TrEMBL record:
GO biological process: translation
Domain of life: Eukaryota
Keywords: Ribonucleoprotein, Ribosomal protein
Organism: Mola mola
MF terms in GO: structural constituent of ribosome
Entry keyword Metal-binding: no
This protein's name: Uncharacterized protein
Homology family: Belongs to the eukaryotic ribosomal protein eL34 family.
Family annotation (InterPro entries): Ribosomal_eL34
Length: 108
């Protein structure tokens, strides 16, 4: 309460700092959609007239080329997750079987 009184007195006397009580420019969306959804993402930019405005950004995948949108995993997404898991487990079991056979031959 005391701090508020001191601020009020200093404002009346004209002793205030510009950075503390600086006005902020009010921004509104330019388009009809007024909600901050996935299709309405914006970023701030400064116009040549020294105003701050919204710049609408496109979605991330829309900015990429077609070759960069595909899946970067094994088999490039041509196989479902269950088939992929089965193939990996079969390969693992086969490699363990080969190692066991080699150890059996070494012991004989």
């Amino acid at each position: 309460m005391l701090m508020q009184r001191r601020q009020a007195i200093s404002l009346k006397a004209g002793n205030y700092s510009q950075s503390r009580f600086q006005m902020v420019q009010h921004l509104t969306y330019c388009r009809r959609l007024s909600h901050n959804g996935a299709s309405n993402k914006t970023r701030l930019f400064q116009t040549p007239g020294n105003h701050i405005a919204y710049l609408y950004t496109k979605k991330v995948l829309m900015r990429l080329s077609k070759t960069k949108k595909d899946v970067s995993s094994a088999y490039r997404g041509s196989m479902c997750a269950k088939c992929m898991r089965d193939r990996i487990s079969c390969d693992l079991l086969f490699s363990k079987k080969c190692v066991a056979q080699q150890q059996m031959q070494m012991s004989l």
